[in-house]
């Protein structure tokens, strides 16, 4: 397989998403975008920004948006009209591994029967048969759900278990487009997750930086800076206005976008700090591709990154996939060798 550069890859993956989503989202369509990523995980904000950019290009009208604490099904019905659709935020939380977002998803399906619900591209992960059964029942009872999945394993699972259209597409974050890195301060940067998706002993959090050539730094992107914290407070205060006037709803979208953009800039600064990057976060991998930055990626604990990489990004010349932390030095060397 001949490698492609990041600009070619981004354009191709955007086209793949549009070819499928355009069948369901029409120019001028009124949409409600549910579950703005209020938490500080920067990667979720990249998905949001990609979704917003896709909807802008498509000419859809965002008449309502909310974070989980501001969800109002009565208001959604009022503003959508008979032909509008609900769009649920994409990511990696379809299932019971992250129960909060999925509980909201099931509530939306219960509250908004009679309105089409489209799930932006997700990874599926369930731990219990009871959670699968509850999701099956919610989708069946709603009767008009479309699931977009971002890897083959999730697509196959959804197709087998859920009685609704299922579509395989890349992640929405690619609609951000190519980004400009800033000057690096280190030879490399390790961005390592330490949450429930960490792969334990094989996590890059355990990588010995002394085994790598040059000066390396390590961190994660879960902490909001002071400006982000102020924007989060403002979103909470705006909640009451958002559920009222049209200007309030416009302000809600604008403020959400500003917060997401701040988190994108934070991620760019972090990943730019190294000439090369090692990570086990999916959206650090995606942002490295948007930056055109050489990086090595390892899996999380249930295969989310490897299945995504196999489906969409293994053609990229800027990435190498390592099966263990012991393989990372060799994987980095491959860049210098052009292998």
Compact summary:
This protein is α/β, with parallel strands linked by helices. It has helices spanning 6-21, 42-58, 73-80, 99-111, 129-142, 152-161, 226-242, 246-272, 282-291, 304-313, 328-337, and strands spanning 30-36, 61-67, 85-88, 91-94, 116-124, 145-149, 166-168, 186-191, 216-219, 274-279, 295-297, 319-321. The chain contains eleven helices and twelve strands.
Explain what you see:
The protein has helices spanning 6-21, 42-58, 73-80, 99-111, 129-142, 152-161, 226-242, 246-272, 282-291, 304-313, 328-337; strands at 30-36, 61-67, 85-88, 91-94, 116-124, 145-149, 166-168, 186-191, 216-219, 274-279, 295-297, 319-321. With 339 residues, the chain is α/β, with parallel strands linked by helices. The strands form two sheets. Strands 1, 2, 3, 4, 5, 6 and 7 form a seven-stranded parallel beta sheet that branches. A five-stranded parallel beta sheet has the order 9-8-10-11-12, sandwiched between helices. α10 (304-313) links the parallel β11 and β12. α2 (42-58) crosses α8 (246-272), α2 (42-58) packs across α9 and α7 packs antiparallel against α8 (246-272). The model has no long low-confidence stretch (mean pLDDT 93).
Structural class: alpha/beta
Residue ranges: pLDDT <50 for 5 or more in a row?
none
Q: So what's the overall shape?
A: globular
- Mean pLDDT, as a whole number? 93
Number of strands: 12
Distance between the termini: 12 Å
Strand proportion, as a percent range, falls in 15-25%
In helices, the fraction of residues equals 40-55%
In DSSP terms (H or I, runs of 4 or more residues), the helix count works out at: 11
What is the H/E string? HEHEHEEHEHEHEEEHHEHEHEH
Evaluate the radius of gyration: 20 Å
* Biggest sheet features: 7 strands, parallel
